[in-house]
Amino acid sequence: MCKPTKTTQKFILDNAVKPDGGRLIAEDVRCYIRDTLQVDYELRNVYRIMHSLGFSWITSRSQHPKQSPEAQDAFKKLSAGNDPSHPKSPTT
Questions:
Q1: Which 3 state secondary structure label does DSSP give 19?
Q2: Burial of 70 (0-12, 13-18, 19+ CB in 10 A)
Q3: I need a labelling partner for 43 at 20 to 30 A (CA). Which of 21, 37, 80, 83 fits?
Q4: Where are the domains of the chain?
Q5: What pTM, to 2 d.p., does this model score?
C-alpha cells in the first residue's frame, strides 16, 4: 500500500478544494510528487494515496467559478422563468 509523505499529505489536504471552485485531481498530485520528491508515480498509485487519506476520485460536481448566489436567487423568484409550459407563463 502506498503511504504518503507528510509533505504530500499536507499538499493534498490543503489543495483538495481549489479557490476557483475546482477540485484537486490525481494528475496534480502526481506532478507535485514528481516535482518535489523526484519520484514518478503511476496514476493508480496516486489514487491509492488519495484513497488512504479518505478521498475518492468520484466527487460531486464542483461549483462553477463564476457562480452567483444572487443570480440564482433572482432566477428562482421568477414566476414563470422561460418555461412556456408553466401555468403563470405570459404565453399561456
A1: coil
A2: exposed
A3: 21
A4: 6-77
A5: 0.56
